[in-house]
Amino acid sequence: MADEIADDEPKPLGRCSVFTYGVGHMLNDITSACWYTYLLLYLTDIGLSPSNAATVTLTGQFADALTTIIAGELIDRFGHFKIWHGMGCLLVALSFTSLFGGCLPCKILGSDSPAVKTVGYCISAVIFCSGWSCTQISHMSMVNGVTLNPTSRVACVSCRNAFTMIASLILYAVAFFVFNKKTSSSQVDIKNQYQMMAYISIFIGAVFVIIFQLGTKEPSLKQESDGKRATATWTYWFKKVLYYQVLSIYVLTRVATNVSQTFLAVYVINDLRMSPSSKALIPATIYLSSFIASVLLQELKWSGERLKAFFSAGGLLWLFCGAAVIFLPINMNAFMYVLSVLIGIANALMMVTAIGMESELVDKHLDGSAFVYGSLGFLDKVLCGVFLYFLESYESADPVACDPAYPCFSVTRFSLGFVPGISALIGVVIAFFIKFHTSHPKPLTEPLLA
């Protein structure tokens, strides 16, 4: 009898299947790391005011959010995850060089006025973020169709998160090489640096897109007798308390990671007065520690209770790091490397478990998976966009005068320390009250990134 029950349980995935799925978000990840880490610096370096730079970011975030909902609904109705994924990757690749390589409308109109620049970069941001969301939603919502085994689903998410870290490390290695080349501080040279970084990033990401497209099978989802796709209604999810709990945790996790990533480079340069290379080394340290944590996480046996426990550990660790960021003085800036390791671990714990909770929410309801991922992504992007707009609008493009022995309470410190820390704390409180259906961890048959 025990053998019959075991045979009925979904079989875990093998190493190759997890790998080919996990690399499918690499192009999104490497370009996203550049967007959140360097866009604010880049736009202000080429002459845009902080408020105009914030407008570009907000425009992209809202385009991302809107496309997330539309793509999620269409994927649920018609399927074809891999087609949506490929289409999104194409838009990302085409728009990324324009975003970080110069203002195309400025060249067409022959004008470098702030208004034309802002509109030009907003157009590139809209195309980039729309393509990015198509890739993201199609890739995330595939995981429940790729496997129904709860532990394998978390392993896929953990593998994806590990390659997110690899993508970011690659970007920061490229950035370290680009930013350490001796060039003048003219806008032309600055644009050339970022354009070189954009071309290299797109090439590397495209290689992994090909691996994903060739190695991952299109999930076969159920259909009605008339051949149409069966989809769960929106009201089905809106009636579930678990939906709102998971939504809150996922959105708060994204706020913590995205806001902190956006202000990190400005913080180490303007607030801690560290060397220019630190804007690549500090983020690289964060992603390296996050990568190691993600690899270790995928070897664990997972259940709903463990998802809650590990998320809470990550949230409390972020709370400690946020407090340290706020009170760190200039003469102790070397301690930022220690904080970077802790932030990376906290990010991995929160992100892997938050997405794992999404999979637990969807469970076997594959017919509505894209809506769940899309709706959560929509709120995440709207909220992050609003946060970033207001925070960046009050950001100073120049370092403020500060006593090296005492912390300067700037907008950057508030954005990097307080906002992620409080978001993580609220997420921990919500996680305490969540109840999942799965209570017993199901083991894997083999290690997945050994």
From TrEMBL:
Pfam families: MFS_2. The gene is MFSD2B_1. The lineage of its organism: Eukaryota, Viridiplantae, Streptophyta, Embryophyta, Tracheophyta. It comes from the Eukaryota. Belongs to the major facilitator superfamily. Phosphate:H(+) symporter (TC 2.A.1.9) family. Keywords: Membrane, Transmembrane, Transmembrane helix. This is Major facilitator super domain-containing protein 2B. The chain crosses the membrane at residues 83-106, 118-142, 162-180, 196-215, 280-297, 309-328, 334-358, 370-391, 411-434. It comes from Datura stramonium.
